[in-house]
């Protein structure tokens, strides 16, 4: 049920930012999204932690994003990792930590990784780390839209 609520919140936020990330090559919008929950962490995260992640390519080829978390103590790092649900994997994109509960920014990502994020979005996840949960306080699998 928590996963459905998190995904519904992401879907509701999508129209508000849809115009910011059009793929000029084909006129379609491209977006990656994830609903983050502490219970998604493989080795246990912050049980009441939650968050949302949205990302889109900008005109310069960077991955721009908005990351929001709540019920999580002082985030220290955030990343996109390779790995299917239930599997930990290596960092593929570094993100700024949402130290005040939210952060917006852009990350430089090589073309192969950028293509893979959309082609195989479910093989990647976003997580946010903090001192209490250095392996990750909240986590969510990516999905493309």
UniProtKB/TrEMBL annotation:
Q: What's in the keyword line of the UniProt record?
A: Signal
**Signal peptide per UniProt:** 1-18
Q: Which residues form the CHRD domain?
A: 30-144
Q: Which InterPro entries match?
A: CHRD
Q: Which domain of life is it from?
A: Bacteria
The protein depicted here goes by the name CHRD domain-containing protein
Query: What is the native source organism of this protein?
Result: Croceicoccus pelagius
């Amino acid at each position: 049920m928590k996963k459905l609520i998190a995904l519904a919140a992401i879907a509701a936020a999508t129209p508000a930012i849809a115009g910011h990330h059009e793929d000029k090559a084909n006129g379609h919008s491209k977006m990656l999204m994830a609903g983050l929950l502490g219970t998604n962490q493989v080795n246990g995260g912050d049980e009441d932690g939650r968050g949302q992640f949205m990302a889109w390519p900008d005109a310069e080829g960077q991955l721009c994003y908005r990351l929001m978390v709540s019920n999580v103590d002082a985030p220290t790092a955030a990343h996109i990792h390779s790995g299917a649900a239930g599997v930990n994997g290596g960092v593929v994109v570094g993100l700024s930590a949402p130290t005040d509960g939210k952060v917006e920014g852009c990350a430089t990502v090589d073309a192969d990784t950028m293509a893979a994020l959309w082609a195989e979005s479910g093989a990647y996840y976003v997580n946010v780390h903090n001192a209490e949960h250095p392996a990750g306080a909240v986590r969510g699998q990516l999905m493309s839209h």
